[in-house]
Amino acid sequence: MSVFTTVTQDQLSIWLKGYSIGTLIDLQGISSGIENTNYFVTTSHGKYILTLFEKLSFSELPYYLNFMMHLSSHGIPCPSPIKNLENGFLGSLNDKPASLVTYLPGSQIEHPVPEQCGHVGALLAKMHLSSLSFPEKMNNPRGPKWRESIAPKLIPLLPLEDANLLEKELQFQSLYQFKDLPQGVIHADLFRDNILFNNDTIGGVIDFYFACNDSLLYDLAIAANDWCMAKNGKFNDANLLSLLRAYHHIRPLTSGEKNIWPIMLRAGALRFWMSRLYDYHLPREGEITHAKNPAHFKQILQGHLLTQARLSEIWV
């Protein structure tokens, strides 16, 4: 979502001739995020989001775009990919795979309250149930193999205390596979900046380009680690209970999921601590870049280590 690949109005005007969405009026780069290049695109027919994919290939992208269409058809408020005149969702722009999706109105919530966390929990459960009928498969690109591959690059760059914490948690998580838990397609990045609210209702869920097949509970843990976390790295219990109860009401959690919950929270914190460490220490160049602070998820992981026993007791 940072602007790594610059697109001019003239370049986009030519590219848009392959679509039936009118003529270009305005083009604005989106600076938040770190993975892809995104622009707001306004045409004579409306507003859209243009994405140029910096890492994902043409062969990988149909999974994500088809999943968004699948969720849309099941009543989930998410962006719908726009077909071009060749009846496809993908094109090539400045030598990068590119797509257009519908723009969803709404704004991000910086300080969520329990009611809003409940809406997020309910939406996530509905997404998970809808995902069960999606036939395509994608292994988690940020799973255990990814952790093992980047750890040797990160550890030499860290202070001794952080390196020791990372090595210990990697060893601990290697003891768990989670394959016996309920599986499906997960969003894998359901942070506050990926849910748009209109007043007190959800207007849309966005940014599905980390979606993959994995444990559904892992998705819930990732959401909890953001939506329900106070600034001190500890849970806001009212937000957490609201999220969990709303989710459980729609997709009841199994006893196995409840038992593994504290470990899954640690796995979610580890994943984002490592990805932020990587982006901080080994950044890519871009016209607009936005690397998030890795210390935030280190603090969350440390908090989970201190409160693991209590986390086992917080249930619906």
Q: What best-fitting shape do the alpha-carbon axes yield?
A: globular
What's the number of structural domains?
A: 2
**How big a fraction of the residues is strand?**
5-15%
Spans of 5+ residues with little confidence (pLDDT < 50)?
A: none
Helix count from the secondary structure assignment? 10
Query: How do the strands of the widest beta sheet line up side by side?
Result: 1-2-3-5-4
Account of the protein in words:
- Helices cover 42% and strands 15% of the residues.
- The chain folds into 2 domains: 9-102, Phosphorylase Kinase, domain 1 (2-Layer Sandwich), CATH 3.30.200.20; 114-311, Aminoglycoside phosphotransferase (APH), C-terminal lobe (Aminoglycoside 3'-phosphotransferase, Chain: A, domain 2).
- The strands form 3 sheets. A 5-stranded antiparallel sheet has the order 1-2-3-5-4, covered by helices on one side. Strands 6-9 form a two-stranded antiparallel ribbon. A two-stranded antiparallel sheet has the order 7-8.
- The chain is globular, with a radius of gyration of 20 Å.
- With 316 residues, it is of the alpha+beta class.
- Helix 3 (114-131) runs antiparallel to helix 6 (216-227), helix 4 runs antiparallel to helix 5 (160-173) and helix 4 packs parallel to helix 8 (255-281).
